[in-house]
Structure formats: structure tokens, C-alpha cells
Amino acid sequence: MADPIESKQYTIETNSSDGTFGALLKSKSNYTFQYKDGELVGAVRTDDGVRGAKIKKQVNPDSKEWKQLLESTSYFDSDGDEIKKNAATQSYNEAIHKGKIDNYIDDINDPVGGNKIVSDEKLGRHYREETNSLTNEELINEAEKESLKPENIKGQNIKDKYDKRKRGYKSKTVYRYPLDISIRQDHLEISRYNYQRSSVQGSRPSRLVETRTKDDFVWDQNTMGGNANKRKNAYRDYLSKPSTTTYTEKKGDSMKGSTYFGTVFLPMPKVVDTNGAEWGKSELNILGLAAASLGEGLGQLGLDAESQAELENAKSIIGAGDKTSKMKDIGGAFASQFYSGAVARATGQSVSTDQLLARASGRVLNPNAEMLFGGPVLRDFNFDFTMIARSKDEGKQIRRIIRFFKEGMAPKFNNSTFLVTPDIFILKYKRGEGHDSDTINTVNRFSPGGLALKTIAVDYAPNGYWSAYQDSQPIALKMSLNFAELRPIYQDDHFDTPEDSVGY
């Protein structure tokens, strides 16, 4: 629905709006009239506040002030001169018809000529909507307003219980949007910790560590005496006995520090996870293998017997300096490589070894092409949240959440030489009262090593235009978060997840 058209400002003399105290006293106030679809829907009074501030207040259509506006016989122009015309009618003519004087009406409330004021019901609805917008009250019914009060929020007691689960949890460090979100439903939990380095190597998964232990050799001199041969035999028996082997699970490397900074509970977002691995095409023909083998033992290359024989032949050709052999087999390949380089130097034309071989013998070097593993891919995740402030408290909560993320991703100043790494985040899809077992198995998990918040983008006007309450809190905004995992996901990580889960 289109926004109402606002008239220019009119200075009108009215009695006090409440009709009680000072009812006989008149004062001049500035008014603008609002029109929608060619009909009057409301009016706004603008008063002077402290330090030049302007305070706007929607005129109640049930008040005496509204009745006086419709029945006014004059208004004052910018020079203070009194104009003997009804302000509402004049504002209608100027706002709707502008310079088309022939279309001007004589009375905005003329039942015969066509009433230009909406019904009482529409007047009341417009007044409530505009009042709510100006005061940042909930744009919802009274029942919903009551449900958003802190004491009535379902699951508020869950938050308090959750706070006590971990040392350092405080109510003020736990944020949620919307305010009435219940963590008994699917949600995204984002906790913030300081960054730490346990070692230079910070990219290992969870793993079993094998430990072999053996009791110390003990020489009982009282029973065995000081016989050297007996001592030697006893020690030999000790060495022959097997040692005790134990396996302990060592958690994967994590950059999560011990300092906890808070948690944000957000609605379940659009869930997408993409796992990848770097694979790349690799080519190594017989010339490359021969060149590599000159500096390495053939066995170190892992070649089969046939390939090793071909390479030995190629090396013998190189060692003998044979450049006169026919262009065939390995010797021809080396010769063609030599000739292609000579042609390029002499003529300036680029001629490849394969081009010479193809022209001379109808053959090219076998590239032995393969796809080879190149390394893991670090995953990233993007989340978008549209956040609508339905109350002042919810608006404050939204601002705190944005600040929470901005503070966490910012580097810390140490001195003119060093900066300290920003905080990191632990993300979990959960449903329950905060236990680790409440992690959802039907969607992906996030790296236990932690995630970095790379970007946060906030669109304060997602609808394409600025729309805010009187305290300038945007009615709606869009927060976009981009996280990246700090270490890869290994196969062992998947083994650590429940079998009925989708893993990481």
C-alpha cells in the first residue's frame, strides 16, 4: 500500500487538545494533513522540543483537536497573515489538485458535493498505525504485545537454565532474535570465544594416540645375588616380554580459547553445506620422468619395471650424447625436444616437441594424464537474517546482536608492531535446552576447530527505502554473515559423529 500524501504545513489556532485544562486558551500549532487515494486520512501536529528538535504527534480523530481542524475558519501563512479559509479544505485542494484551481472544492466535508474524508473506522486504523510507527510500539495486536513482555516470553526460563550450564555464562551475554524464540525448536546457536594457538600445527583431526608402556626392569639382588650371568639372563627375559599398549583419543586441534564472550540464538536459517577437495590434472611424459630420475633413484619414483627400463634407456641416450638416432622411441623424443628448441631459437617460431613428432612419425608423447589430489578445501557458510523490530526491547536486542558480531570479528590492537587475532565462533544447529546432545543430526555440523567471521553486512533499508521508528530504529533490516572454517574436515572427524547423522 502506498504511503499517504502529506500536505504542506499550516499554522492553525486551536484550543488544548484534551479539552480540559486550558480549554478556553488558544494556541498556534503547525499541522500537516495526510491524504490517501484522494481522501483525508489523518493529520500530524509538529511541536518545538528542546535544542531545536521537532516532535511530531498524530492527531487523534476522536479528539476535540481533530474536530477543530475540520471546522477551522482560518489559518496563518509563513508571514503570520491570517487566511480566511478552512485549512483542511485548502490543504486538500493544494495537495490533490495543486495548480488546477478549476477542480478546487469548497468544503472537504460536503456530503452533497462529495465527502473527501474516509470513514471513522479507517481514520481510527490510520491513527493507530501511524502512532505505533512514531512511538516504536509493536505493529501487532494487544495479545501479541503482552506475549513480548520479558516475563511472558516462552522459554525465558530455559535461557536462565542454559546460562548456568557453563562457567562464565551471564544473562547479559546471551542474545536472541526474535525475543520470543524458543530453543526447544530448531535454531542456530553461535558462541564467541577468544582465539588461541596450541601449536604451530593447527590442522589435525581427532585421532587415537597409541602409547606403549613397560614396567621398569628390577634386579632383585637379595634373591638373585650378584651373579652377572643371572642378571644378563633376567634382563633378556624382561626384553622379550611384550609391552602394554593403550589407546587414548586426542581431540582435534582447535583454535577455541577458554575465554567465553557470549551466545546468540537465531532462527533456523536456510541450510546449505558444500564439501570439496582439490583435485587437479597432472601430466608427466617420459621426458619429465627421465629428467626427474636423473636426480633421484628410480626406485624412489615408484615406477614399475617396464617404465624403469624405458627410463634407463633414455638416460643412456643422454649420457652417450646420441643426437643422431632415428626419431623413434625415447631417443627420438629427446631428439625432437632438442630440435624444437633449436627451431624456436633460429626462427622465432614456437614449435613444440609433439608437433615435430607428429609431423615426422605421426606420434606424440604420452602425457600420462591423471587427476591427482591437491589438498582439502576450507568450507564457508553464508547466512541471511531479516530482522523486524516489533518493540523497543526487540530493537535494542537487534542492535546488540549486530554489535556482538562486529566486535568479535575486529582485530585487537596490541601495539604499533603487532595485532591480536580476532575472536572466533562456534556454530551449532540445535534443538533443546543447551546440551551437546541437542545438536541436530539431520543437517551438517561445523568444524570443532572454530570458524572465523569474515564479513558482516547489514542492510538497514532492505525494502529499498528508509523506514524507521521515531527513535530511528529501522523497522526492518537484513543481516548477512559469512563464516569460514579454520581447519579442514577430515575423514576421522566424520567418524566422531553419530552414525545416524549426516556428519560434517
Beta-sheet strand percentage?
25-35%
> In total, how many beta strands?
20
Task: Give the number of helices.
Answer: 13
Ranges where pLDDT stays below 50 over 5 or more residues in a row are 17-23, 135-145, 153-172, 318-328
* C-alpha end-to-end distance: 45 Å
Radius of gyration of CA atoms, rounded to a whole number:
41 Å
Instruction: Find the structural class using helix and strand composition.
Output: alpha+beta
Mean pLDDT: 76
Residue share in helix:
25-40%
Q: Give the biggest sheet.
A: 5 strands, antiparallel
How would you describe the shape?
elongated
Number of domains: 4
Please provide a written account of the structure:
28% of the residues lie in helices and 25% in strands. It is of the alpha+beta class and 504 residues long. The chain folds into 4 domains: 131 residues, no CATH class; 185 residues, no CATH class; 44 residues, no CATH class; 85 residues, no CATH class. Helix 10 crosses helix 11. The longest helix is centred in the last third of the chain and has 19 residues. It starts with a strand and ends in a 9-residue tail after the last helix. About 10% of the residues have low confidence.
SSE layout and pairing:
Blueprint: E1 5-6, E2 10-15, E3 26-36, E4 39-48, E5 54-58, H1 64-71, E6 75-76, E7 82-83, H2 87-97, H3 120-135, H4 142-147, H5 156-163, E8 174-176, E9 187-195, E10 207-213, H6 221-224, H7 228-240, E11 244-250, E12 256-267, E13 277-282, H8 286-295, H9 305-320, H10 329-347, H11 353-361, E14 370-376, E15 380-388, H12 392-409, E16 412-413, E17 419-420, E18 424-430, E19 451-459, E20 476-485, H13 491-495
Parallel strand pairs: 8-12
Antiparallel strand pairs: 1-3, 2-3, 3-4, 4-5, 6-7, 9-12, 9-18, 10-11, 13-14, 15-20, 16-17, 19-20
